[in-house]
Each structure stands twice: as structure tokens, then as C-alpha cells.
Design brief:
By secondary structure, the protein is an alpha+beta fold. It is built from three helices and five strands, in the order ββαβααββ. A five-stranded mixed β-sheet has the order 1-2-4-5-3.
């Protein structure tokens, strides 16, 4: 990565290159994650580095509905957990306590899963994924490429 490109600062930012050659054409696919607010700067810099940009595309994913659904499920499960704790306080028999305990374990597992999904969406929304396909003719020193940028936007 050139020194003036946005440099990775967190574990969520990375880049991968996979060189390959087919029919005498060398190519490499490079994928990098950059902070969403630096996506435009990064793609501009990639364009400046390219000798020939053959194509470019931008795609995005709106996760508002998914995030809202997870938030609602989280609130409902937290309310159920609170109600089950109150029931546990009033349980008179060991059988009742064990039954409520099993339900609490299930609810808490679901809570952890949903919290993890929300955290993943929040982190993904902060990053943009940039994929670059680099192509070179056999024996030529010139490169040609295609840039694809993918963004996820929250709320």
C-alpha cells in the first residue's frame, strides 16, 4: 500500500492481494477496508495510481431495517429476562426454579447473539470495503484496473 494511502489502524481494516495468471495476463485482486469517511479519498488515490481505469462501480447496503429489528428484539428479550427474574424470586419449588432457570439461559443466549449481531453491523457500517482488480499484459509494464467500492450505511 503506498505511504499516502489510508493506513490500517484497527483489526477491522485489512488488505489482501491474490496474484494469478490466466492466458498470459497477470492479475491481482486486492481488497482493503478503510474507514467509511475516508472511502472517497482512498478511491481517488487509487485512480491516481492507475495508468488506465477500465471500470468503476459503487454499491451500498442499507441496514436500517435490520438494525431496527435487532434493537426491538433486544428490548423484548431484555423485558422477558426481567420478568423471568421476578418469577424466579417468587418460585416456591425446585422444579419451578429449574424451569425458570432453563428459560433464563435460553433468553440470555439469544441476548448475546443479538448483541453480537448489532455490534457487527455497527462496526461494518464504520468501514468501506474497496476491491481492486489489477491487470497487466504479458511482458508489459503498464497496468489496467477495475475498482469496486462497497459501503454499508447504518440507521
Amino acid at each position: 500500500v503506498p505511504p499516502d494511502m489510508p493506513q490500517p489502524r484497527t483489526p477491522f481494516e485489512d488488505s489482501r492481494a491474490q496474484p494469478s495468471g490466466v492466458s498470459g495476463v497477470m492479475q491481482a485482486n486486492v481488497t482493503m477496508r478503510v474507514p467509511a469517511e475516508r472511502r472517497v479519498q482512498a478511491t481517488e488515490r487509487l485512480r491516481q495510481l492507475a495508468l488506465d481505469v477500465r471500470g468503476e462501480s459503487l454499491s451500498g447496503q442499507d441496514i436500517t431495517q435490520e438494525f431496527s429489528d435487532l434493537s426491538a428484539r433486544l428490548r423484548n428479550l431484555e423485558a422477558a429476562e426481567t420478568r423471568l427474574m421476578a418469577i424466579m424470586e417468587g418460585a416456591a419449588t425446585t422444579i419451578d426454579v429449574l424451569a425458570v432457570y432453563r428459560e433464563l439461559v435460553t433468553i440470555r443466549e439469544q441476548l448475546e447473539i443479538i448483541r453480537g449481531q448489532k455490534q457487527y453491523l455497527e462496526q461494518s457500517a464504520k468501514m468501506s470495503l474497496i476491491s481492486v482488480e489489477l491487470l497487466a499484459s504479458a511482458g508489459a509494464q503498464t497496468g489496467r484496473g477495475r475498482v469496486h467500492t462497497s459501503c454499508t450505511s447504518p440507521r
